[in-house]
Design brief:
Strand order of the largest sheet: 1-2-3
Structural class: alpha+beta
Radius of gyration: 27 Å
Largest sheet: 3 strands, antiparallel
Order of helices and strands: HHEEHEH
Shape: elongated
Strand content: 15-25%
């Protein structure tokens, strides 16, 4: 077989060029999707933590939920996301048996683009998570619990 002299050595160069052209966007896509997925996990964990906190400590729920959200997003490595937490209650938020729903909305910037567009105008992906928890009769801050504490019993069951 006779090989024309003009085609020698071009296959490795074409392979390297095609690999770079195809591999760099593929790696960027995988990293971007992983970052958005981390934001999704953080938003979901924040919704669960916020609903549980609101069901147990209704008076301090917004402050505790914000601190937990900061912790969750830092743990998942999504430090530049903006989030908001909103609570809904099916009845009085401190009454046992009522349900507390936490709605979390997080804006996760697309990886690498805030450096180009700036942090304010960067493209982002909005992630929403919702979790509902039931207020326990043993949670703190309830008016019912204070009424029950007024009628304390000793270990033998007699009124004090």
């Amino acid at each position: 077989m006779i090989i024309p002299s003009g085609d020698r050595g071009s296959a490795p160069i074409e392979f390297i060029f095609a690999s770079v052209v195809l591999l760099i966007p593929l790696v960027y896509l995988v990293l971007s999707l992983a970052y958005v997925q981390a934001g999704s996990y953080a938003a979901n964990a924040t919704a669960i933590s916020a609903a549980r906190t609101a069901a147990r400590f209704p008076d301090a729920a917004p402050a505790r939920a914000d601190a937990l959200a900061r912790l969750q997003f830092e743990d998942f490595g999504v430090t530049d996301a903006d989030w908001s937490i909103r609570f809904e209650c099916s009845g009085p938020c401190d009454r046992s048996g009522s349900s507390v729903t936490a709605h979390v909305e997080a804006r996760v910037p697309v990886l690498g683009l805030p450096a180009i567009f700036g942090a304010v105008h960067a493209p982002h992906i909005t992630i929403r998570a919702v979790h509902t928890d039931v207020v326990s009769p043993y949670s703190t801050g309830q008016s019912e619990r204070s009424e029950q504490n007024d009628r304390r019993r000793d270990p033998l069951g007699a009124e004090q």
